[in-house]
Amino acid sequence: MDIRRGLAGLAAVLVLAACAGREVAPPPAEAGVVIERASGSVQVLDPARRVSVVRVTDLGDLSHAAVVFSSDARYAYVFGRDGGLSKIDMNARATVARTVQAGNSIGGAISRDGRLVAVANYEPGGIKIFDAQTLALLAEVPSAYGADGKRAKVVGIADAPGNRFVFSLFEAGEIWIVDASDPRQPQVTKFRNVGKEPYDALITPDGRWYIAGLFGEDGLVLLDMNDPDAGPRRILDGYGRGTEKLPVYKMPHLRGWALAGGYAFLPAVGRHEVLVVDATTWQPVATIPVRGQPVFVMARPDGRQVWVNFAFPGNDQVQVIDVSKLAVIESLTPGKAVLHMEFTTAGDEVWISARDDNRIVVYDTKTFGRVAELPAQSPSGIFFTWRAQKIGL
Asked: Is residue 314 a contact partner of residue 338, using CB atoms and an 8 Å limit?
């Protein structure tokens, strides 16, 4: 048995006293972190000066790691693939708490009131809810389904208004809402038979619509968080892998979705297309041909551009879609194995991780010129603190 899995049940919380009493520097107006997946570390970034401030180490397995911020952007919560949950003080630039809470995790979310952090787990399946201040475990919600009570992998977790968490169960084909108003006795609402193998999901910026993508069949599932009693409904039926089962080299990420110009831009599974959907009627509007299988489809903050990166073999490239034209207007080659993109608050720059070139590349989003490069060890996710006030991020 993996030692880390053995430790998972202990949920050992380590509060690092080394930071006690340390003088802290005032945070920059905008800060961020980049995941260094191979070394189990993150770099704290200052986007305004385009510099790395410090490297924080000993964070475990950070392949497919994700980050959320406290509402004041003081703390970053890092969700590791090995079940590690680490709390980093962005001012002290150090880890202040850490727990290994499961054997295999896939991200998490922070409640709207900032008091709770929920982690989505593959092994054992389910979510765990922690006190955001201390990382003390408050509750566990096992993802047991069916007659034999097997646990499903939890995917697509998002925070929702009312201190709720919403997520999907991959093997079960279910969507669950957890009301954590009383975090020690969370209330669970289950929606069964929503579709085969939901693989990821998103929630709209107003917190109303939860959309799960289906890997096992065509289409997506839409749930109105304002009226969950109405139940989930299918959208874009007929879209997807269809009768021609296309190879999928990397699962697209819906959490990096784009809402711009009244449209939702979604990555198509296994296809060289970005889907455009009317964000009012949820009816398809267009498909935009792109260089490869899209992974992240992300809108510039002013909604005038959508940037797309791709799965192998086109994963050294990024393309830019003009929202008014619904067409690709620029193609860039930032480096080998582009894994993530992150806009600055104003959207004047985008930071791109090129994992196999061990660097972050910064582009001007108006001229498309390179303006900076920073070294990083196998960089993947980049997360800036503007996310702190956003639902679902």
From this structure: no
Cα(12)–Cα(10) distance, integer angstroms: 5
Answer yes or no: pTM beyond 0.70.
yes
Strand extents, DSSP E, 215-337: 220-224, 233-235, 258-260, 263-267, 273-278, 284-289, 294-299, 305-310, 318-322, 327-332
CA distances from 268 to 107, 161, 308 (A): 22, 28, 12
3-state class (DSSP) for residue 357: helix
Contact 122, 154 (CB under 8 A): yes
Sheet strands side by side (includes 338-343): 338-343, 349-354, 359-364, 370-375
Distance of CA 387 to CAs 110, 180, 345, 383, Å? Answer: 11, 21, 9, 8
pLDDT digit string, tens, across residues 298-331: 999 999 999 999 999 999 999 999 999 999 999 9
Residue among 267, 228, 225 at smallest CA distance from 249: 267
Are 68 and 117 in contact by the 8 Å Cβ rule? The answer is yes
Q: What is the DSSP letter of 153?
A: P
Q: Most distant CA pair in the chain: distance in Å?
A: 62
212-256 pLDDT, tens digit per residue, is 988 888 788 999 999 999 999 998 887 655 555 566 656 666 666
